[in-house]
Amino acid sequence: MKCSKCLEKSIVFRRDSNTHLCESHFVDAFEETVKHTIEDNNMIVEGDRIAVALSGGKDSTALIYVLNKILSKRKNISVFAITIDEGIKGYREDTIKSARNISEKLGIDHIIVSFKERFGLDLDEMIEARREAPCTFCGVFRKSLLNMTAKELGATKVATGHDLDDEAQSIMMNYLKGDIERLGRFAPRRLQPGLIPRVKPLKDIPERETALYCMVHGFYLKMAECPYASLSFRSDVRDMLNYLENNFPGTKKSTISGFSRISNLLADRYPPMRLSSCEQCKEPCVENSCKACQLLGKIDSSRLIASSRSQS
Ligand code: SF4
Questions:
Q1: Which end of the chain has fewer beta carbons closer than 10 Å to its terminal beta carbon, N or C?
Q2: What local confidence, expressed as pLDDT, does residue 225 receive?
Q3: CB under 6 Å to ligand 1: residues?
Q4: What is the pTM of this model?
């Protein structure tokens, strides 16, 4: 099949615009979409110092590459990378190496911080003998550590690699859990003290295109998946949406556009929560203690119980 814009061989079909694109026109279209997303949502402004959450997977790799390309000529905007090492044996080592490689290649400052050094335990240790899904722990601690680190390093925004598929999954997960309050707080909100604002420049790009963008630039790697991913609710929702998208093209986009039509109503119904400062770590929180410190407290108690059982 030929590219719809030239005579080169097509590498991708964009169903929504009914166009076949060759490598070069695909790269242009990808980058134009990201630029529009940034501009239309006023995501990045002069003076911003952007911390890119760089896991080393395809989405964050595509993100840092495209941001570096788009923003490199803007003198008043800087980009650096933060990688969180959760401590997932047999998985994180490879992705950290990839994160280091892409940062070096682009000449971008790269900081690696770990659960172990900040919370005293890595994820594998945190979930030992616990019934909660590992992603519950991982999500809370990663969010907290990312915010702390970005703040310490003077970031004005945190950019994450969430793509269109991630957005559709998050919306659907909240619908399916009946968690309408959380759904109402999903849309970007006003600034909250102590929280570095998050932006998602890839939110209009389908996941398969982030993978393709990495491949055509020669830096995607192997499709490593976290060993805990299949245990999560998100994994089932992802499979369900992929199935629906295959059989009813456009399902993911309509999930997102349907949500955007009700998001203002939900925002009125569920205004931002008033935040205070965690008594232990000083991170922003709703109660006296943030979610990360609450979970650490639970982990400490269960480890104490386990150790007293093993001694008796
Ligand atoms: Fe963490 Fe779950 Fe993602 Fe694995 S799949 S990195 S445990 S959030």
A1: C
A2: 81
A3: 86, 134-135, 138-139, 226, 228-229, 232
A4: 0.91
